[in-house]
Amino acid sequence: MRWETIRKDTPPRTAPNLGDYDEECAGFSWWEARARLEGLPGGRGLNIAHEAVDRHAASPRASAVALRCVGRDDSVTCVTYADLSRSTARFANVLRTLGIGHGDRVVTLLGRCPELYTVVLGTLKNTSVLCPLFSAFGPDPVAQRVTLSDAKVLVTTAELYRRKVAGRRGGLAALRHVLIVGEGADELPGTVSLAALMADAADTFTIPPTSPNDMALLHFTSGTTGTPKGAVHMHEAAVAHYTSALYALDLHRNDVFWCTADPGWVTGLSYGIVAPLMHGATVVVDEGDYDARRWYRILAEQRVSVWYTAPTALRMLMRTTPRTGPYVPRRGPHHQRRRARTHRAAPAAKRPPGPAPGELLVRTPPRR
């Protein structure tokens, strides 16, 4: 198979967000960073879902593609910002119907699929708290985190529920509802089909007043040295998500963005879902497992302009790349010394969070 060469000698169409580093450091202000966000209409606060979805859906960008979902069979489904606004409104209404409200925990045990984005952002619209779990966790880690989070709702698939939750359901005292993505809910007592609930829900929803200090996301540490610790992101974290993506990822509205991190971890959620949508980018959602040829095909066919991945993934790809394979320019802390250039993320002492150690940002030049 022949691959199109990705070259870095093409001049960028758009100037980088970070020009003179020292000048940006001197003038950086978190107050000004916050002013880049719209806030809820009528001064009702700050909500991550509004910044990521609804403000785009209410603008001329409503018809722009928010999600480009590549199925396991290589089929491609596009979801616009208007579509995403409606589906997340439906899920927020589903939660209301189930009696789930402000501050209640909603846990996801899902891989990359379109429904995940609907659940994440619909939960935030409802001012409930989203707690993502790594789908490769075993039954014990899943049960431990569902218990620690005091979750009332679990959204998962029939297969994952059978293997990792059903046998421990009796010990999850706070868990009231299990919503099944896809088929199989009819065969699982104590569960209900998410699609059935969504079909009966309205596709409009008014986000309640949201304090910047309201809980939005609850992540858990790996638990390798003891009981997993909960780490909370407030809705105010939207400021850091937006700003770090502005500088560290250099995101623009015309970018096609692909983050390969699992959505069960903080990188995959903050920088795989929230941050790129806040910038109005198009997010590639790959539902398949790792395969070198598949990844190269997605990069080429979906014309990915910003790729957020791990050095391990790059090394795996390099081992399977033919000598005539695609040239990938790299930026980040763990790059191959040749052909690479470093990218300082943002103002030094005031630097917002960006790619963590062990992660790597790739920006490919725009195609003409």
Characterization of the model:
With 368 residues, this protein is an alpha/beta fold. It has two domains: 168 residues, Rossmann fold, CATH 3.40.50; 155 residues, Rossmann fold (3-Layer(aba) Sandwich). It has twelve helices and 13 strands. The strands form three sheets. Strands 2-1-11-10-12-13 form a six-stranded mixed sheet. Strands 4-3-5-6-7 form a five-stranded parallel sheet, with helices on both faces. The longest helix is centred in the first third of the chain and has 17 residues. The radius of gyration is 20 Å and the shape is globular. It starts with 20 loop residues before the first helix and ends in a 5-residue tail after the last strand. About 9% of the residues have low confidence.
